[in-house]
Amino acid sequence: MLALTTVLLSGCLFPEEEKVENKVPDDLQLASVQKAVEEFQADTGVLPIKTRDMDTDMFIKYPIDFEKLVPKYIANPPANSYEKGGLFQYIIWDPEVKPTVKLVDLRTPETIRELKISFMGTYYPMFKEQIADYVYSIDYDKLGYKEDLTVPSPYSTNLLPLVVTTEGDIYIDYSVELNNFIKENNLTPKPGEDIRMLLVDAYPVVPAYSLPYTVNENNEPIFMYDPIAEQKDEQEPTSKE
Length: 241
Description:
This protein is of the alpha+beta class. The chain has two domains: 18-105, no CATH class; 107-231, no CATH class. The protein has seven helices and nine strands, in the order ααββαββαβββααββα. The chain has helices spanning 2-13, 27-44, 107-119, 140-143, 175-184, 196-202, 227-235, and strands spanning 88-93, 100-105, 127-132, 135-138, 150-152, 159-165, 170-172, 213-215, 221-223. Strands 3, 4, 5, 6 and 7 form a five-stranded antiparallel sheet that branches. The radius of gyration is 21 Å and the shape is globular. The relative contact order is 0.11.
């Protein structure tokens, strides 16, 4: 009876969403979902994804629709998936060339949402210091915070800061992780190359909710963001009449 009581109490103390396996990427679960996606595509000719707007961030643009996979292609969504109370959104990366199952850490959007709500009470975003063209750090003191907000990195034990653009959009700053990855692997990316792809290729978790980065002449990560140029590109016609 004592043993049974201990088991029952353990189940109460550690609900499904608190289990450790729900908070970390798992190779077996990734492989299982990858296999299910490939089988679904082979049978139907399409990918099991939810519909998103065309201008959605490329890292969260193709979330997997597990309702299309369960139960024929996979018994249940993975334990660490959002659908099962886990911390990860399963997505498809590179759907047109090589559809690959990747993960989005869902701790990030919660923090961004909190900060956006704080911004709603201000006349304009609380800029602090300019980090790059159109990119600023955030003045948390003026927003009433006692300390700066951060998010846990999906790649290390680092806590990553948030930045805000002149457009008022909030992003995660992955500069530290990118710099460490470049140094540790002795890499020399070309200026103009989006070095976030280094993290995409190396890890199961993608650097979602981020701005593009490249490197400067010292091989250091810098933001590669120009909203004016992006607006011009969107306004230019795709073909001549």
